[in-house]
Amino acid sequence: MEIKKKKLVELYTTMLKIRLFEERVIDLYARGLIPGLAHLYIGEEAVAAGICGVLRENDYITSTHRGHGHVIAKGAELKPMMAELFGKKTGYCKGKGGSMHIADMEIGILGANGIAGGGIPIAVGAGMSAKWRGTDQVTACFFGDDASNNGTFHEGLNLASLYRLPVIFVCENNQYGISVGQKKQRLIQDIAIRATSYDMPGIIVDGNDVVEVYEASLKAMKRAMAGEGPTLIECKTYRWRGHHEGDPNQGRRYRTTEEIDSWKKEDPIKRMAAKLIADKVLTKKKMDDLKNQVLEEIEQAVIFANESEFPTIEEMYEDVYIYGDRA
Amino acid sequence: MREITYAQAINEALRECMKEDERVVLLGEDIGLYGGIFQVTAGLLDEFGEERVIDTPIAEAGFVGAGVGAALTGMRPVVEVMFIDFTTVCMDMIINQMAKIHYMFGGQGRVPIVLRVNIGAGRGTAAQHSQSFHALFMHIPGLYVVAPSTPYDAKGLMIEAIKNDNPVIFVEHKKLYVEKGPVPEESYIIPFGQADIKRKGSDITIVATHAMVLRSLKAAEEVAKEGIDVEVVDPRTLTPFDKVTILESVKKTGRLLVADEGHKSCGVAAEISAMVAEEGIFDLKAPVVRVCSPDTPIPFSPPLEQAYVPDVKDLLSAIKHLMEYA
């Protein structure tokens, strides 16, 4: 498949933005500026970038507790995102959601979800809704490997298949359900084979190869838009950090440094950078410029978050219910 | 005015809303061909087709969650879970998703979903098909909880529930489905948060929900013969809750009996009693009495179940006890 140079640069830039944003989060979290939980996506950037690379602004995603990458790839702005992580009122959720609940309804981000597998039925409903409303919107549904052991996965895939819904199920297989490795979760090696039970294609891709993810996503997108139904894409990848930033020794209680290092050699960003240089899509100089631009955008986001106000106590009581004009 | 049943009244509300608004769709178990376990959706499949009346697989987390996703993206789904007991297998979709989305996302997104469930024992269906744990949903901010006791209320509250932009748990009562009452043919709305005084009286306030309203009215007629004048107040919606009407009634009567078919502990009656204790205790001349279901699972054996369900007899003895206080 011939992918336009502009798209290749876009995929690379998205991954870089996710990586640099989260590297900054590591520092801000350690300094106590970001409270609560921060589940980082570092190492898995190719999945979000590749999948969202085919989506249009009005397509939907449902995201997970490890959602920074998904929402950045779908087009979330860094300023309200960082402000949300800080718990500020200028954040995407006015400081009421935090890292695990970034949403932007204007661009189809139906929300990051703190419950493993929680977004799957919601994505199915978005798919049903697109059919009912007669639009060609597609929903990409992100979830982790261990969420595929949850009932919502099986119920959701069955419904999506039954109603031939325009949904792309994206399993980010990062090898661990918190601390529990693959072999302790299930006997089958590949989650993709579960698609067979629901009469949909189950595709396995190298989740650290953004081009491979993108191509699989494009195929699933075309299938969805043609009314042929959902696809399950299993992306084999790895999270470099612990389950969250507070995970002791970045998850070395249940995995070895050797294992982590071996996956770091498969860094999706380095791999894509090497490819772009080899194919003469970008020069080293252009890449450095890109990185500096992204770093500047992140810096501005941190300044914005820092300077923003916390919500007032009264705001705690707002938005529990909707009053006034009806939709 | 013509009389129809509680089930027919809800059916009529669904039909009217589906005719008026294409965004209204129905999802649930056996709601299509079968017409719903209690025939509440009878005839709607024929009228609106299987695009809008969907017989789902037995996958409550899947289809209730799908209702949430559909509501969030512009639809107005009415989802039936066959018995309130079955909501336990999709509680995440109710408590963590539909109730919280609007708040957690800082006021973004609307989830205008109606989740239809039913409560009530007395049909010999034991511990997992007869529960009345609707109080559980009152505990969750973000949900509205509706509790109609008459066909008239059922229709007006259902139309309001569908038009409302918030998620609504619409709690029906199995024993009421066949009860008849006057219902206007035209469309009308009963706003949430407005209690209805079903019987005016001056000696005792009974705040009753669902079938306990009918049972309370019967008990009231009974004691009227002895000169005891009972007022029966039906909150109609548990969230939002009309405190004003209840506190005014208590101020007038000085005696409060709360009747609800849920368990006594941490139930609807417990909440109402606590509210009156906080805000109206100096108007009381007697301790508050609750008539509820016992704190046991629902037993199967007919004599046990009969004893289990709070009935007119229980209300009568509670009324007599309250009248001992001058």
Structural write-up:
The complex is a heterodimer of chains A (327) and B (326). Chain A is of the alpha/beta class and 327 residues long. Chain A has one domain (5-317): 3-Layer(aba) Sandwich (Rossmann fold), CATH 3.40.50. In chain A, 43% of the residues lie in helices and 9% in strands. Chain A has helices at 5-30, 45-52, 68-74, 78-86, 119-133, 151-162, 182-185, 210-225, 257-264, 268-278, 284-307, and strands at 60-62, 139-144, 167-173, 176-177, 180-181, 202-206, 231-236. In chain A, helix 6 links the parallel strand 2 (139-144) and strand 3 (167-173). In chain A, helix 1 packs antiparallel against helix 3, helix 2 packs parallel to helix 3 (68-74) and helix 4 packs across helix 11 (284-307). Chain A is globular and about 50 Å long. Chain A starts with a helix and ends in a 20-residue tail after the last helix. Chain B has helices at 6-20, 44-48, 60-72, 91-98, 101-104, 135-138, 151-163, 211-224, 243-253, 268-280, 302-308, 312-323; strands spanning 3-5, 24-28, 53-55, 76-80, 114-119, 144-146, 168-173, 180-182, 196-199, 204-208, 230-234, 237-239, 256-263, 289-293. In chain B, strand 13, helix 10 and strand 14 (289-293) form a beta-alpha-beta unit. In chain B, 59% of the residues are buried. The chains are: A alpha/beta (327), B alpha/beta (326).
